[in-house]
Amino acid sequence: EKGGFEHFMLKEIHEQPKAYRDTMLGRIDNETKKVQLPELKMTEEQIKNIRNVQIIACGTAYHAGLVGRTVIEQLVRIPVETDVASEYRYRSPIVSKDTLVIVVSQSGETADTLAALREAQSNGAHVLAITNVVGSSIARDADDVIATLAGPEIAVASTKAYTSQLIAFNLLGLYLAQVRGTQTAEEIAHTLAAMQALPEQVESMLEQAEAIKGYAEQISKHEHLFFIGRGLDYAVAQEGSLKLKEISYIHSEAYAAGELKHGTLALIEDGIPVIALATQENVLEKTVSNIKEVKARGADVLAITYEEHVAPLLKSVDQAFAIPKTLPLLSPALSVVALQLLAYYASLALGHDVDKPRNLAKSVTVE
Ligand code: F6R
């Protein structure tokens, strides 16, 4: 049942290239180089009228929504907010019939997400669900559904569902951009080609899992560590931190790299591991300054970046892990794989029950 893998989580990490391919299958027209989402009931006119987007989810799906916010804002230039479902309902969200609400849920059964969906619908919003279970309550109640085709996810810690959600957000963002004319045909074709390269790129990363395993064994000896990054790297930092806490029980925090000096830097002391995500090239120099701030306080820094930046970064960091080159909006779909492996191997090194971490359930049907 685990297909030769020791745990479901490792199997599911390895299923990601297939999950990416399956989620893209039939949704990219290779002749016209366009996105097609025939399942959508939303009309072109409705799409043209969207004034704002609200993304709502819990946990890892919320972290996918943080990436989704940037993807949609960049591609479509409409304002997007991302909320945790248990908070959204109680903040009197401002919704109109021109608000597109996107709920994200692997299981499609998360109580808070389902309640937020109903709240948004009762306020007149059109609700689109990105879910991995097409027969779920959330899929049934939503006005539109984009299915992630990750296949069943058994491990409590979500991996392939999260990355498939990233693919779904990119497809949706490109589709909205196509209809609203905010990206040229060339730009769309270029991004689609980069997306189609992702599965092989993930495969090449999985072949380097041993390097991550070695680093995971080092950090498993620590009680606290930090993840830092800017922009989409910050969103991935949050997911990496959750994954590590969830299955290794090591305390970690994710910080926007520029926020450290507003308080958290006080916690950086000799030997503390800091994992710096550094893929967003528009802010790379700024991230490097933040890395230097923690290095100066004795932190032990691992950078996750593109090959071309490894040599220069090694002047400021202790170790680096290179990921394959992709477009800025797509980098989370690669960098997170390194962090999933890190959490997995740290949990393994500590002898924890990787697939069934304490206190947690796969599907959270209570509010
Ligand atoms: C973490 C994890 C949880 C879920 C969250 C939402 O690895 O799996 O944080 O992401 O409980 O679940 P779904 O996506 O089923 O709504």
TrEMBL record:
Keywords: Aminotransferase, Cytoplasm, Glutamine amidotransferase, Repeat, Transferase. The active site is at K362. Residues 43-182, 215-357 form the SIS domain. GO terms for molecular function: carbohydrate derivative binding; glutamine-fructose-6-phosphate transaminase (isomerizing) activity. GO terms for biological process: carbohydrate metabolic process; fructose 6-phosphate metabolic process; protein N-linked glycosylation; UDP-N-acetylglucosamine metabolic process. It catalyses: D-fructose 6-phosphate + L-glutamine = D-glucosamine 6-phosphate + L-glutamate. Its EC number is 2.6.1.16. GO terms for cellular component: cytosol. It is found in: Cytoplasm. Its main location: cytoplasm. Homodimer. Catalyzes the first step in hexosamine metabolism, converting fructose-6P into glucosamine-6P using glutamine as a nitrogen source. This is Glutamine--fructose-6-phosphate aminotransferase [isomerizing]. It comes from Paenibacillus xylanivorans. The gene is glmS. The chain holds residues 244 to 610 of 610 of the full protein.
